[in-house]
């Protein structure tokens, strides 16, 4: 099934300006004083509707010590941080010449994503740019009836009881990677962990989606996907010309997507011809709430996500997904799962290498609970410190750090008028660092996620997976994966920063990357050695 993106009308066109009212607002915003919602947990829509709307200030970066001003195009993080410090809850700026309103108050964001979600959709730059590639899959679907149907059908395949069945594959793939490290790295040798983790996450997601039975096709899929992702990554840094213009890179992109689609067709064909009778009744993905029926196993064999999606039935109309839509969804799942989890893993180990006392606490927990055996799903509950390390990584280095919405109709947020057509920008990197909600936000402190310290926190101040009906469908999958991978690696390896290595800074791309990648010295460890003992012959923990 060939991708159709060159035949579509120009997808990356800048949306129409928001009209005279928006220009008037921009003008009044220029003269406005910074505005902050008076109550941190406050009323989502602020002052009474009859009150005059409060102006939205336009972000005007001030000079830094060296005399320069941060610009969004060259220093996105610096620009946004400075504006958030100065304006707090809400401000506006221009993104590729288009007016954008930034929301940075948890209640306001909640109103857009949850309370008044029917007033907003995804017909907005960030998603329009990639729609020619991701097409009508969940990530880029603008919203509405097709979206709701797809989400309803796919949700059961991502329930905790179903994800639990994928845990073994996640640990297995990680163990396979670590076994290879025994050959690949001498103790103390520097490894490119960003690269290692990008291969690992791709192996995990293709195994989960397509199971082990289709190894060769999965490898071709992974190669085509990596090429797609590289070209898309470059496109995001400079999104011109639109993807509909057939430049050599865009042609390669189209070919790579065609190769991915062909692989998915093979997977589907393979699944259809080998599908056992009990799967044809459409029950597989619909059940599974209790982890007994509908779990991804058939006669001891693994059932993959693809099978679950192929068999998904809409509870409202009784229909299933057509093949074209299935292709789109598979692509969206891989894209959603790949860079986000890769970056989260890379950040986790970078931070641990910089914070030996946190690493030591993690090792103590891992060694005590696992006592040398590989982790299972049952260990997730008994390793709360590891879970907190994951949560704190997702706070400080939230990989899916920015998302956008378009206002379909006028709204009032925190007393500010949001005109119909306005582009709304939200950024969890900023939100997760607001000092009003986070004590010492620049400090990596997993214990801020203990139940006691979480108790008084604003309930919408943490949203690495978004919120509302479009919250990440893979949230549970990602948390299980990150937790299991952390336990499996921490049990066998530790990492140190090479002498003289400069601090790794966040690099803002579509997702938030560790700039320059994570390169650390790899050292096998022995259980209970506090990270200093000699490795076993194959780098495995010596119990
Ligand atoms: C640390 C890892 C991950 C993070 C931080 C993350 C974050 C997010 C966020 C913030 C959104 C919402 C975007 C918005 O509202 O505009 C989202 C959506 C989505 N994510 Fe994830 N994600 C992660 C892992 C995954 C995984 C593992 C999968 C699949 C297995 C996945 C699949 C998706 C899909 C399909 C959507 C679109 C959902 C919808 O609109 O209905 N993500 N993700």
Automatic annotation (TrEMBL):
It holds the Pfam family p450. Residues 271-298 have a biased composition (Polar residues). Keywords: Heme, Iron, Metal-binding, Monooxygenase, Oxidoreductase. Residues 1-74, 271-301, 499-543 are annotated as: Disordered. PROSITE patterns: CYTOCHROME_P450. Belongs to the cytochrome P450 family. This is Cytochrome P450. It comes from Streptomyces zingiberis.
